[in-house]
Fold:
Amino acid sequence: MKQLILIRHGKPEPPGAAATDALRALTPEGRAALAAPTGFPATFAQFAAAADACGLGALDAAGPIALWTSPADRARATAEEAHRALEGLGVAAGAPQDCEALWEQDDVAFLDGIAAAGAQTVVACGHIPFMNRLTAWLTGEDVSFNPGAAALVLVPDVVMPGACALISFVPGPAA
Structure:
């Protein structure tokens, strides 16, 4: 079993604000909302408590957490804030690594990567509709990923539609 934390990037600049969609950054307010005590620190604290309540133990019990990100600027900045929040909670997490499947919204390539990952916990920062669609496929639960929203999903060794458990969902920070 692996733990998967799916995160939609924080509040981005509007379309057309950058030369390409991939270069759109987080707004200053969006980044601040992720870093605020009610942002990612609260999200990861909630996930740690939910994992513990399910008997899963600490998020990093099996070693460092793998932190994957879409190569889009707004997702990378979100992954940086997630890394800071995890470190602030004393959770060992690897540096953010680009995952093209998150940008391309390639379900098969992403799930193959999860299966091959050495880490027992993977945090993935990406985009909608991928996060909504993947969570629904994995768990059978329809959730709506606002900017900065996150889902903690328990992934069995054999992944089939609806075979995973949605342990906790945070709809995102206020901004």
